[in-house]
From TrEMBL:
Top-level taxonomic group: Eukaryota
InterPro entries for this protein: GshA, GshA_N
Protein's UniProt name: Glutamate--cysteine ligase
One Pfam family linked to the record: GshA
């Protein structure tokens, strides 16, 4: 059993992680979606700009505050600007920003929250009626500040920049920014509405379905393979569908084609990722569920459960109808160890990829 191996080799596993993270430091904050089917456990999504901090329980908030303080102590200065998403009308997202702001503020940092692309400061309401003051930003000779004169020592992005790097953050910035701005140079040639490039997607799906089926037969699993098609620039669960064959792609209905047409901020889907579909055997209140790990640096500080009453164990649960619960205090130690290991592997892989992309960019390999 995987749990037994990880328990026996716990010290060696920790040494291995310590060695790799010393070479490829984890970013400040990540969330990792994990799927456990009984025959396989895998990370299926890593987010460098997570929302959902408002779902943290009391203990998780305390762990997060300590972890933030430890991570950020490597940077000089105590003035922090959090750059957030522009969709501040989403009250649940405002809940998350307020929770993040409060955790950092209670850790001893001076905080302001800013948004790119607004001309003047504004106040927005959370789902509980709390007020969040959001500042307009300016860039004067590479120094980013609020229009009210707050000059941060450090800029923390809680914005995935789906629409690209905004002008106020473009170019050489005087302050440190985390995560660092990295342009991956992603390209594609897919249009699900006009069906441009769909034959290639269907072929890729068929090939992946075949390989998954071979593994199922090898291990004697009586399961039906399926594949998630995900927008390469997808976020917030948008631009995701599941298919069971290449024919499903070729004969996609209008509803699914529209799902794969545009994502957040009306950005078009032009490139996709094909990912093995891993069913979840986790259940919360009789609903299909999946673990969601929040990490500060390389360490998990919160174990959430995402559940959805309207979706099956085969589907994307990050969809309308989903809810969250902090389950950190109720996880068996064996399960926690497995989730933690899988989550840390995902964070490490993301850190390595980010470093390689940045290195390639600096060396002229990306444009």
């Amino acid at each position: 059993m995987l749990e037994d191996v990880l328990e026996r080799r716990a010290a060696a596993v920790e040494d291995w992680f310590a060695d790799w993270f010393s070479r490829y430091p984890a970013v400040l904050s990540t969330s990792v979606d994990v799927r456990s089917s009984g025959y396989k456990i895998a990370p299926v999504d890593v987010n460098f700009f997570p929302a959902g901090y408002n779902n943290f329980g009391v203990d998780a908030r305390q762990r997060a505050k300590s972890a933030f303080l430890e991570y950020l102590s490597r940077y000089l200065g105590s003035k922090v600007l959090i750059v957030v998403e522009s969709h501040t009308r989403n009250k649940k997202y405002v809940d998350s920003v307020i929770a993040l702001r409060d955790m950092l503020g209670e850790s001893g940092f001076q905080l302001e929250v800013g948004v790119c692309g607004i001309a003047e400061d504004m106040s927005v309401l959370s789902s509980t009626g709390a007020t969040l003051d959001v500042r307009a930003l300016v860039n004067c000779g590479g120094e980013v500040s609020t229009t009210s004169g707050f000059v941060p020592d450090l800029i923390i992005l809680n914005n995935d920049l789906t629409s690209g790097i905004p002008g106020v953050l473009d170019g050489i910035i005087a302050q440190r920014m985390i995560p660092r701005l990295i342009w991956a140079g992603l390209t594609g040639d897919v249009d699900f509405v006009s069906k441009k490039g769909i034959d290639n997607v269907a072929s890729g799906v068929e090939d992946l379905i075949s390989k998954i089926g071979e593994k199922f037969r090898f291990y004697g699993l009586n399961c039906t393979p399926h594949v998630f098609i995900k927008a390469d620039n997808g976020t917030y669960g948008m631009g995701v569908i599941e298919v069971y064959s290449g024919e499903d792609v070729l004969n996609m209905n209008k509803k699914n084609r529209n799902k794969m047409r545009k994502i957040k901020e009306n950005n078009p889907v032009e490139s996709v990722v094909l990912q093995e579909g891993v069913p979840t055997n986790e259940v919360f209140c009789n609903h299909a569920a999946e673990p969601l790990l929040y990490c500060i640096g390389a360490e998990p500080v919160c174990y959430l459960c995402r559940y959805n009453a309207t979706r099956s164990k085969f589907e994307n649960l990050n969809a309308p109808g989903c809810g969250f619960a902090d389950v950190g205090s109720g996880i068996a130690e064996e399960k926690r160890r497995v989730w933690r290991t899988v989550g840390k592997l995902a964070i490490l892989a993301a850190a390595v990829e980010a470093e390689e992309i940045e290195s390639a960019y600096l060396n002229g390999g990306l444009s």
